[in-house]
Every structure is written in C-alpha cells, then in structure tokens.
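User: I want to check something. If I give you two sequences, will you return the structure for each one separately, not as a complex?

Assistant: Yes, each is folded on its own. Here is the first sequence with its structure:
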Amino acid sequence: MSVVDEDLEAPTAPIRTDTSEEEPPQAPTGAGVDDDLDETEAEVRAPVPVRPLLVAALATSAAALTTGGIFGSWPARLLSFGAALVGVAWCFLTLRSIRRRVMYQALLLPVTVGLAALALLPGSGGNASFGGLIADAIKAGRLFRPPVPFDPGWRPILVIVFVSVGYAAAWVGTALERPLAGLVLPGVVIALTAITQPPGGQVLTGILAGAPLVAALAVMFGGDVRSASQLGSSFEIRRLIRAIPAFAGAVVVLVLLNNSNFLFPKPVYNPQQKPQKPKSIPLSEAQDKVLFTVDGPVTGPWALGTLDVYQDGSFLLPPFDPTKTKKTPATGTVIDKSRTPTVTVKFTTGDLGNTSVLPGLVDPVNIALTSAPPITYDPTSETFRMATGRVPTGLTYSESIPAYPAAATLAQAGPLTNRSAFRTDLYAPPAPPAVRQLLSQAPDNPWGRLDYLRNALLKVVVANGAGVPEPVTPAKVTQMLTGNHQGSPYDIVAAEVLMARWAGLPARIGFGFDGKNLEGKVYTVRPKNSAQWLEVYFQGYGWVPIVGTPPRAQANLNNKNTQVNPTVQASNDIAVELYIPVNLPSLKQLYQEVRDVILTLLPFAALILLLYMALPVAKKWWRSAKRRKWAAALGPRAQISVEYAEFRDWATDLGVGDPLDTPLEFLKKVVPDDQHLELAWLVSRTLYGDMALTATEADAEAAHELVSSLRRRLFGPQPTQTKVLAVLTRASLAEPYTNEVPNVRLWRLPRPKLTGRRRNRRRGGRRPGAGPRLNRLRYIRLRRSAPVAAGRSQ
C-alpha cells in the first residue's frame, strides 16, 4: 500500500468530481426540482440504469405469468405480475435515493408483508386465520391436478414470492451490474412452474412466459449495459420498438413449439397413473357438517370411489388416467344402454372440502345436471368428477340406476363370461386352509358360495376399532375366522372382498357414505355416515353393493361421534362405563407453567428486540437529514463538513481507520484512491485552507458525489457479517466523528446520583482519556448569526 505524504502539494484549481462508469454525470443541484420545493428538503437522486431494470421486469413478469397459469386464473396471473413489478419498482426507489437507501431496504420486508395481508382480505372470511388460509391453500394444491383452485391463501404467497423475486433480480442486475445473473432466479421459477401447467392452458402460458423472456434477452444483449446506460430512456424505447417484428416472430415460434410438445413434453412417468394407498382421517377429527343432501327412495350407499388393486396385502385406489375419462354433457348421458334405470336420486352438494368427485350411486347409468359445469366420467371407478377444481357448493344433479336386485334374483345369475376384463378385481393370493375348507362345503352357485362364506365370517367376527385402511392378508382373514375373531370394519369388508375373489367373483371395496339423516324436511349426509362396503359384479346385473354389519361389536367408550346401530349387539367382553366423582390434583409442573408464560411472551420480546436492533438505522437516517438541513442554511463550507463527517462516521461503523485522524492522515489507513485523495484535499482546503472563503455550491455537490461513491465502494467489498454489524451498530452514534455538527442522542438509562463519600472518591481522580473532545475538523464555528458565514452562504 503506497503512502501519501502529508506535505503533498494541494491542487490549486477548483476541485470537481471525476465521474467514473459507476457514477454517470448528474444534473446540477436543484435541477429537476420544483422551484416551490425547498432545497434543504429535496431528495438527492442517483442515476439508475434503465436497461437492467427492464431486463429484470420482463424476466420476473415471465415467471409471474407462468406461475399464474398453474391456477388457470387471470386474477392469479395479474396478481403475480403486479407483485413482480412492485419488487422491481421498490428496487428502483432504493437505488435512486442516496440519503434514504438504507431506510428503503429496511422497509422492504414490512411493506411486502403488508401487501400480502391486504391481498388476503377480499373473500377470505372473517373467522379464518392468516396461517390457516395459507395452509388450506397449500393442502388443496397438493390434492388437485392443475389448474389448482385459486384459494385466498395463495394470494399472500404469490405477493411475497414475486415481490422478493422482482427486487432480487433488479438488485443483482443494477446494483451489482450482473443483468445475466439477475435472470437466474426468475428462470428457476419458470423451470419449476412450466412443468405443472394444465393441458388446456399450455399454449397461452407458452406465449405469456416465452415472449417476455425473449424480450428480456433481446434488451440485455442489445448493447453493453455500462455504455448504454448513458444513452437515456429514449434510446431504449426506440430500440424496443424496432424489436417488435422479431418479437412477433418469436411468439409464432413459441406456438409452433408448443403444438409439437417441445415446450411442455408429456411426462414419461405420471404417479397418478399408478395405484395409490388410500388416506383417511379419524372420524373424531372430522368437522361435523352437512356434506350433501339426498332425495330418493334408497338409503344408500353413496359412493365416492373404490379400492380394487390388491398389492402386498393392501387394497389400493385404482390408477387415474385423464385420457380415459369421458366428458359428460349437461343434459345427461347414458353410460350403459343395456340396463334401464328405474331409481333416481337427487343430490345437492354442501361443503365437501377438497374433493373433485361427486357423491353418487354405485354403478350409475346416467346423470342429469340443472347447471352446466364441466364434469367427466371415470369408467374405472364408475364415478363422476369435476373436470377442474373442487366440487362447488350448491350443485344439484340427479343419478339413476336400475333397482338393486334381491338375493333371490342374484341366485339366478349365471357364471362370469369375460373373466379377462376383470383381472384386477379377481386377483387374490392363495386361500388359507380355513377358507379352502369353507369353499369345499359351499354350493356351486356364485351367489350361494359368496353368501355361505360371508355368513361364516359374520357369525364369529367381532367389530373392534375404526375403519382405517390397513393391510389385510390371508393370515388376518384366518385370525378373524378361527383366532380371536376381532377386526375393524375395514378389515371385515376387506376380508369379504378376498373371500368373494376366492369364490370366483369380481369384488372390490366401495367407500363413501351409507344412510341418511332426517333434518327438518330434508335428508342430509354427514361425516358420521361414512362407511365401506363390499361390491360384487354379477353377470347381467353389473356391480351390486352388499352392505352388512357384524352381529357383535366391542363397546367403545371414547369415540362420541360413532353412529350407533341398534341391530349390532355387544360382544361377550362387556365394557361398563362408571362415573365416580373424584377431585384430581393438577399434575402440571411449575416449569411447564413457566414455559407457557415464556412462550406467550416470546413473540413480544422478539418484536421489542427487533425494534431495538433497528433503532440505530432510524437514528442514523435522522442524523443525516438533520445535518444536511443544518448545513444547507449555512452554505457550502458547512455542507462539505457534513458530508465528510458522514463519511468518517460510516468508516467508524465499519471499523476502518482511526476516528482521531485528520482527512489527510486518514488517507494512509485505506487503499490509495484518487477520489479519496481529491475529497481529503477538498475538505482540508475548505476548512482551514485557501478555499475557506471561496467554496461554492458546485464544490459542495462534488463533495457529496465523492462521499457517495466512496461509501458505496468501501461498503461493497466487506464480508456480509461486517455489513450487517455496520448497519446495526451504535458506534458512530455513541462516538461521532465531530460534535461541531448536529448529532442525535442515544437513549440511555439514567445513572444513580452519587452522594457523600462516593462522590468525593469520584472527583478525586480522572479517568484516562476523559479530557475534552478533540476538534477533529478544526474549522471555525459556523453559526447563523455570524456575518462571515452568512456571506459565504450567499
């Protein structure tokens, strides 16, 4: 490091700033500011390059429009697009302001959270919490295929994500001068969201995402960023207009590529086309509400789906293939013309939650809708479902089926003719010895064999527990037949399905609801009506639900939501519920109570700590504004002094140099720099040299530009930890570089007053270094009443 001698000859010409590529020429002080605006309150604005901001805005807009396509909703696209522009605009405000840059950076997070909260207000409902709405939206997004329902909880997520992405992309492209790196973050968002677009919106998404991205690349590579930043906005606008023909051609290419499945290729592996394990929640955790109402001559069952694939001892949901679904017209459709419907049930949906399946009858023949929402028919599970999104509330429709055959009618059913079409519904592992013995005694008639096996099981089995899906193996069937005879309702139905398959009949598990509740003048179905049942295919009759209950069940004293069936008797193991009044002592330990209090107060303590840590930022900003307002009334000499004091306080916060050094002595403590040398001589000559009476507004403006450039370049190379500590530290507030310019006070706790002997002891000696503060700037006092200072301010 070279050292500048103190006797170096000072420049004699008036000092002007030597602008570099990082600091384009600025307009003179007062240019562009209204005459009515006081110069002391005018914001000093830094030039911001247009090209990197435009690149960041276009790239982030492409990512926002692509993400909005997942919901298939224009409000989602526009909300994401607006949030992206807010992030870029906030970066522009931050870079444009020199004096309030730190304040804008600190306000980014609270402003973003505030915008997210405002976006959540419309249509969110008064009882839902902020976190609950977001959790519900994410849960629904995992269950539905695109387009995902645009629930209110998605709005704050999109606002926070794209304000952050827009700000980050713009900051990297402008402040760090890396516009290509600024494209990386929006590019990652585009890559992650482009593969989850709904089939019907891929062309539109390709245009809305690809066109801005192509435009961003064209703007970025249209010229050198540093040199083009000095050409002005008019040059950028003319260049953008000349790129419109190429832009239109790029849109045509995007459409052609999309039609060839190049942009959105078909997935090699689709997990939805594989059997899935069923998921269920305990009945006690389900919210008691009206799911739908029914109006018809039957009491159920009301089907939502089936479990027909048997793998590794478990029954799985059948694979869902969207290409095999059939569109259903609103006027109704006949699914099986060979069967004549004679029973019709009218359904009106309530709050079914996150499901796209319409509750209906088993193996329906046709459906009729009063409205015309897009619905499809899944031939694998014989159910109707919404083409997109969840089942709406208040949807009214009717389903029709032939009347369910009686047992005597099923006894006349013949053998299955097309067994190859029912390979999945006939598959079962080898029957255990107990079942083989029953099969040897069963009649040859299909219904007779099934009825014989079911009766043998239901005579001995005891229902125990909830109907939660779990593996049911041949060993489990043997245990229910010859062991302890216990099994959950799901285990019993699964055992019936296996026994039907061992008897040679296609069988599967149907799930949904059974029964109805008379509430007023309508029949309702609630979560307590949930059930599983056996479905068997009989030649000439189709799929027939067979609902049965075991004659015995263990008493359950814990589940208060279970529907009681009076035909089911208690097992031999009788459970008696006794109520004995007992005064139970609280077993809650003291540390648990203390922990609860601490957890309650912890958020408030964290907020107070955050405000305390952010207090130096506000005080430094207020000190800078206070100093500059004071100096503007005194003239250029005071303005130069304030600018240099701000620079040295900033160096103190970074831990650079010695606060006692004069401007020329401080040159030795840092890397040699031409602008720093120029600033040191300008301050020295103005305060106690030949420019004390001749400093002008141009010199003050030059000092401001030099200090801004030096502060930015001194702050940039520092490690992240040093930057954070420099922003939050109170060093320059506690020990400012000089006390001859305005400062702000730190809030300190009052010290106790010393009396008697302690006061005398304190006066007896003096703390080392406790003398009067040094006059570091060493210039004459500037006051409003001083005639010399007043003359200079003119």
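And separately, the second sequence with its own structure:
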Amino acid sequence: MLEGITQHLARIGAPGSFATRRTSAADDLRLTVKGVGPIPLPVSSTVARRLCGVARPARYGLRDQTLLDERVRDGWEISKSRIKLDAHRWQQTLGPQLEKIGRDLGVPDGCTLQPQLHNLLVYGPGQFFAPHQDSEKADGMIGTLVVTLPSAFKGGAFVVEHHDQKVHYRGSGDRLIFVAFYADCHHEVRPVTDGYRVVLTYNLLVEGATTAIRPPGGSPPEELIQLVREYFKTTRAVQWPHSAAEGSPDHLVYLLDHQYTQKGLGWQRLKNGDAVRAAALREVAERLDCEIVLALADVQESWTCMSEDFDDGFGYTRRWGYGYGGYDDDDDDDASGKGTAHDEDYTLLDLYESTIELRHCIDASDRRVKSFSDVVTSDEVCYTKPSIELEPFASEHQPYTGNAGSTVDRWYHRAAVVLWPRARTFAIRAKASPEWGIREVSKLLAAGKLDEARAKATQLRPFWKTAVRYDPGPGFIDQTLRVARGLDAHDLAGALLEPFALEQLTPQAARHCTALLERYGLSWCGAVFERWAATPRDHERRAWLAALPGFCGRLCTGGSVDQLELARKLVSSQWVWLENEVKHQRDHLPSRHAVAKLVGLSKSLHGLLESSAIAQAHDVQRKIIELLTSEHDYPLPCSMALLRAAHARRPPLALSTLGLDALHQHCTHALTVLLAEPPRAKDDWSIATPIRCKCGDCKKLARFLVAVNETQLEWPLATEHRAHIHAIVDRHELPVTHQTRRAGRPYTLVLTKTRMLFTREASDRKTWTSDLAWLRKTSKSFHRHASDT
C-alpha cells in the first residue's frame, strides 16, 4: 500500500529545480566599496587585489562556532556594511532576474523572492571553499543567490549538489552570472587557478504566499486518494513502540526531499517538489477528513556495514561522503553549521532498524500544534528520497569485533507531512501523551458528560497498557484512579488501572483507592491489587514496603470492614514476596554480602510489620516475628538494624503494638551469651563456621578450621576437589588464603589461616558490646504495654 502511495507522489512532477543559473549585462550594477571606491566592471586583477587589501580572511560556521581555517575555506570577505549599491538602478536588473529565478526554483504562485545582501567575496589563485551547507540566517530564508561579477579568471567552478544531482557553474568575462539554490543544498567553490573570482552573495527570503499551492492538474489523482483511504483501513501487526499490537496505522508520514530548520518550516516555504506533493496531500486530507501537519522528524537508522580495513577477499568501494560537513557562509558570531564533519570508512550493507520521532509540528495554518510528539513505525513512512542519500548530522560506527559484525548508526534531521484520520485524533494524541488523554477524560467527567467520557476511555484501551509503561509521570496514577471511579464501569476502569504497579501507590493515592472500594467493592479492588503486585520491581518494591504504613494508615482511616480486609489482603501478599526475599538471602549466609542484603531489607520488614498492625493482620505479625527469632540463625546485625529502625520511627508507647519485644529479648539473650565467652587467646587459631556440606573434603576442612594449633594445611587434591574447597572458603568468607602449588600430581592446595581471624573477632566484640548497651537502654520502650499508659 505504501509503495503505491510513494509511486503516485513520485509521479507528481516538481515545478522547479534545486538550483538555477541566469545571466545579464552588467550595465545596471553600480558598486562602491569603502576603502577602494567605485568598482569598474569587468573587475581587473588590480582592483581585485585592492579589494583583498580591505577584506578580512573568510570564516565559516561549524555548529555554534565561527572558525578560521584555510584548510576548509581560503578566501576574502567584505561585509555588507562596507558595500554601497545604486539600489534604484540595480533593481532594474535584479528584479526581473529574481522573477525568473523564482519560476526556476518552483516558488509558489503569489510568493516573491526578496534579496538580502550578505557580503562580497573574493577568491584569488589557489583559494577555495570546501563542500558545505548554508545556514538559514533569517526567518523566511529559503535559499542563497550568488552574483558572480564579470572578470577574467580560470578554475573556481561553483558546484551545487542535492541528493544525487550535481551542477557546475562558471563565471563570465563580460556578463553577470546569477546562481540561486535552496539553502539545504551542498555547494563548494573549486580552487581558482588564475585571476580573481569576485561575487556578491544574497540571502533569499520568500514573502507573500497569498495563493494556495495546488498540485499539477489542479487536484491529486483519484488513485492516490483511494490508496490513502485503503491504507488507513488496513489491519496489521505494528510495533509501538517496542511491543506488538494489532490495529490500523495511526499516521501516514511522507518524508520531504529537502531539509528545513524549525524557523524555516512552513507550508508556503516548502521547496519545489516538496511544495506540490504537500499540496496534493493537503487535498487528500481534505477529501478524506484527515488532520494534516508539517513536522520536523528525527530519523535514526542502524545499518550493517563493511569497514574499509576489513578484507573479505573481494574488495569494496567506499561510499562517497562530504569531507567537510556543516560549513556555511555566515560571517556573524552566532553562525552555526548544519552538519558534522565525517569521513566514512565503511560501506553500508543492510538497514536493520529505523526509528522516526516527530517534533515541532505545525498545522495547515502554520500554527504550532501543542502536545503532539510521537514515535512512528517504519511501516507508516514513505519517501521519494531515502535518508541514505542525505548527509547524516551524526554517525557512530562500531567496527567488527570478532563477536559481532560491523554496524553504524546514522542520525538525520528531516521534515515530513503527516496525515491521520480526524476521528482518531484523540487516540493518537493520547498515545503520545497518556497524561493528556486521561486529563481529557477527566474534563468530560467533571462536565457531567459520562457517555462521552466512557467513549474516550474506550479509545484508550487498545494501546493503554504499552503507553502507560513509558509515561509514569508523577501524580498520573492519582488522576487515573479518580477517572476509573468516575467512569462507573467495572471492565473499563480495570483496563485503565491494569498497567500500573504497587510501587506507584503513594499515601495520597489511598483515598482514591478507598473511593474505588466504595464504588466497585472488595473483590474487584482485591483483583486490581493482585495484578499490580504480580510483577514486582524488586529495588522499588523494597523502598515502597518501607513506606507502606503511610498508605495503609490512610486506606484504613474509616475503619470499615472492607477497608481493613483490603489492607490485610495487601499485607498478606507482600509478606509472601518479602519472606521469599529473606529466605533467598539467608541461603547465602554467612556471606557478608548476604548479611548486607538482609540489613537492607530491615526497613522493608519494619514497614510490613507496622502495616500489619494497622490492618490488624495479626497472623502476618506473628510470622514475621517467628522468622526473626527462629533457630535458623537470622543474623544479629539484621535484627539489630530492624530494632533500631523501629525505635527511630515510632514513639515508645507504640512499639509494643508491633510485637518486637520478643525480638528485643532474643537479641539481648544472644548478645549476652556471645559476650560471656572469653576473648580469643592469642594462640587460638580455631575457626567455627557452619559448613553444611557433609562430603569427605568438607569434613577434613572443618577439622582443620576448628584446630586450635594448626595454621596451614598442605593438601594434594584433584582439580574438581580444589575448586569445591575454593568455593566453600569464598562463600563463607573464611579468614583463610588458598593457593595451588603446581608440582607433582595431583597439585597441592595450600590453606593458610590469616590474622584477620583476630581483628574480625575484636571488631565483632566491640559491635556486640555497643548493641547490648543500646538494647538495655531501650528495654522499657520495647516492653512497655498499653496498660502502662
């Protein structure tokens, strides 16, 4: 379908060329330059040298810089402030020439070209300007006019290129040469071999645009209208933006041939073929009741390629590219280039991925369209000039590595005409900005237009799950919760809420959940919470559980049976998840990394414990305390971290409601027992560790570890047995080094106890003493009962 649309657009002939050349006599040009005086024509070598004497070296613009580099541009320039023309007489020649140039370039009827003098340039023997693009120096500028003054010179050909077309222009010894071209065309001045090339340069601005542009023949062909109609009716699997969804295409995007800047984009400033094809598409849009906009498009293409230094045995030809990208004729300090210099050292092979993002859209009246930005899929895009024929503004080459082939990413700034059925405008804008879509539904509900709100919300369903995943703005879930309640439709409300996650629920959202509970009931809300909990974002879930008491407290504010039951369901489901997290880390004990992970879960455990108290989920409270005080040796640092977190967050009178008195007693007893043991003797090298493996190698390792007087074990072991012992030592983080003596068969594993055994125990005893002192100090806080108040 797109291929047929492309073919029809390509057959719409361009009314003009990208560049044109005109000539005239020089009788009307009366030119005076400050410091030189009147300039007689033809320009003699003597006068040209005098012009060079009052000129300055010509500069060029590269992005946001104005540079001077004779390797890129070697010439002379005189600013317009030093140039004086007999304007009245000059207009007698320039005016008619501009009319002809306008027709040559395909400027629309009703528009006129207005010249804006820029500067005077002189190129002497050996001087040149490398390939570059001109910047659009003023609003409405669409091109450049170069007027070559008559003089005797050789070389200095002026070359203009657009896509795969190239034209050469030379000067004249007795006539004026007018060369005009669109601003996005690359052009260069070849080296002058003899004499002097002297030119006036003008910015060409388009004005007027009172007459609507129409395609050749007055209207687009019926076949094109029918193809676009059928295109929007097709059903196919599309990728938006990264997951498949069935449906009709949202847009028809036609990439224009010429390049445009944000200030240069406008319906009446489109260039030759772009103008007439855009006019045809405007009439198609009118006939089919479609919206239409002009947009700037950022295009990224990913290609496989062959690097120049990759020898495949067949040889290759490197694709030609501009050696000097992005230079312009601007002599102002804010000059900016249009591209980036690059020298391709690869050949493109296959295009395997393309992404196009629309931005800066303007409607049919040249007004900025707000809240319209979208990523379009490759099967919504057509063009008469592929991006590969343009110069990218940036590229990134990944050479062949041995594991992956050579690839290159290229980025382009293009412009596009975008159509879509007017009936789908809401859905398309909502897909680009889900927050905007939900606000529109909310406005309808506030206005009492329930049926319209439901109809709009129904349009959101096909893409809502994917769209929301990429736009979880702050406060978005709160607004969606309000809309879900206001719709008073079980299935529709559930579909709008489905993409969210528990981690997005804040205490402020609790009142909206309470409203949903009143509207849809406990069973419905419980199912929504289950869906939200199904795909936890582990790191975010841990932080969210620490803040869960704030949500549960507001959810249970009314104290109704359903509110408490919904909170209990939430707490119970989260205990299942958190218990698995705790057990997973406990399986890796006594690794200090696992201990650190469990310490990190302390705030989550405390948050869930406090939420259990709020929801009166006493069974969950009991299970948490049993886990923390069980005989499975839950690490003391983790228990202490939880007690300290609880003490810091809750007032003393409230601590007893959490049931942490049992954990407080458990920790007090454990620390008392540990500190009752005498400090390690200076010659005691025994290491106690719970090695669970019962194999013969581990039994021998355990005997070595508990030996008081043994500090080294030399142990001939086969490779797999050495690897097993290495793993045991590393997993338990034992203060033992392990080295392999590679002599004889099998090699000998040498285990050596280190003095870290003593420094680690001294550090632990210091921590135990501090923790026990804190427990005794806070004993009343944890053991005080409500009756004491």
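Because they were folded independently, the notes below concern the second chain alone. Residues 433-676 form one domain. The chain has four domains: 8-208, 222-309+345-426, 433-676, 696-754.
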